[in-house]
Amino acid sequence: MEYRPLPVPPAREPDHTAHEYGASLVHFLLQTRCTAVLSDDDLELASHVSVGLSGLTYAPETAQTVYARLSELRHLIAACLTGRKADRVPEPATCPASAPYRENAGPMAPLLDRPIVRPPSPSYAVPGQGQGGRRDDIAF
């Protein structure tokens, strides 16, 4: 049994804009309906451009067909992206790094670090000096 080769998506030309490349991806998807050869970014770009294409004015006799095919294409892209997202294996959660070893870190360890107590600066210790002066020094 011989399998058909997968279709080759259009290559991105350096002088093409993102919308031009997206339009070529939409054209490729409408012809082949093959999403396996496109990356997630290419599929999202094609979906974005197809929304813009559905806003264009078409002849009344073909407008319904065009809208239906573009809508079907957007559903195909959304289903592919959702399936790819579901197939991804989530990254394992990393454990936070443990604290460095401390002496007496067993069940008898203090729960909180004790605060560092320092004597007040000399300007606050002596009344009438610095910021801790008399009440008359304060201007209202």
Low-pLDDT stretches are: none
How is the main sheet built? Answer: none
**Count of DSSP-assigned helices:** 4
Strand-and-helix sequence, N→C?
HHHH
What is the 3D form? Answer: elongated
Q: Which structural category do the helix and sheet elements fall into?
A: mainly alpha
Indicate the mean pLDDT. Answer: 81
Distance between the termini: 97 Å
- Overall radius of gyration: 34 Å
Helix content: 40-55%
How many beta-strand runs?
Answer: 0
Into which percentage range does the β-strand content fall?
under 5%
Descriptive report:
The protein is mainly α. The chain has a domain at 18-87. 44% of the residues lie in helices and 0% in strands. It is built from 4 helices and no strands. The chain has helices spanning 18-32, 40-54, 60-87, 122-125. The chain is elongated, with a radius of gyration of 34 Å.
Q: What attributes characterize this protein structure?
A:
0% strand, 140 residues, mainly alpha, 44% helix
Summarize the structure.
The protein has 140 residues and is an all-alpha fold. It contains 4 helices and no strands.
Helix-strand layout with pairing:
Elements: H1 18-32, H2 40-54, H3 60-87, H4 122-125
Helix pairs in contact: 1-2, 2-3
